[in-house]
């Protein structure tokens, strides 16, 4: 079975642990969950195949983010906390960009239930959030509620789709680069040996013409 590793980042109390536990156990934590409980395994079905997902909250490990070597980064923020969204731009994206550009990123807005119930007002429209994220090169965005189990499945189905698309894109890029290198090598070989072939052909033609004249005489 294929296994993927997700590293979850975001400010405290934005719902990272709730998202991890809801996906892995189906339960919503009633109180703050200890750090030791925020590294979980989950199994998903994606296009009729089982895929294992190792979910790691960065607060649950002493290892640095760049040592974890994930398949995907998920950055969480609360839809009712503007500061947590600002920290994506100021803190988390610069951190991840400094580590690697070869790992896809999914940004997830949490606590959608509070916005839908109008208990709290969202700080920006969804369209505005998406527009801001695109300025930072982030095209993968989703929203969910762990409390109401709203869009949790969609978030993780989308996450796998992002990884598969990203892997295929990298594969296509590598194929194009490899083809260009082969073409360049063939061109260099022609420059190196093509001149010799042309010179030999000209010499053979001169020899044939000279022999023909002698035969005619």
UniProtKB/TrEMBL annotation:
Keyword flag Zinc: no
Sample GO molecular function, one term: GTPase activity
Entries under SUPFAM superfamilies matching the protein: P-loop containing nucleoside triphosphate hydrolases
A GO biological-process term: small GTPase-mediated signal transduction
Cross-referenced InterPro entries: P-loop_NTPase, Small_GTPase, Small_GTPase_Rho
Keywords of the record: GTP-binding, Nucleotide-binding
PANTHER family hit by this protein: RHO FAMILY GTPASE
Name of the protein described by the UniProt record: Rho family gtpase
